[in-house]
Amino acid sequence: MLIVSRSLALPEAELTERFLRADGPGGQHVNRTESAVELRFDVARSPSLPDPVRERLLSRRDRRLTEDGVLVIQARRFRDQSRNRDDARERLVEIIRAALAPPKPRVATKPTRASKERRLAGKQQRSKIKQTRSRSWSSE
Question: What is the pTM of this model?
Answer without folding.
Answer: 0.70
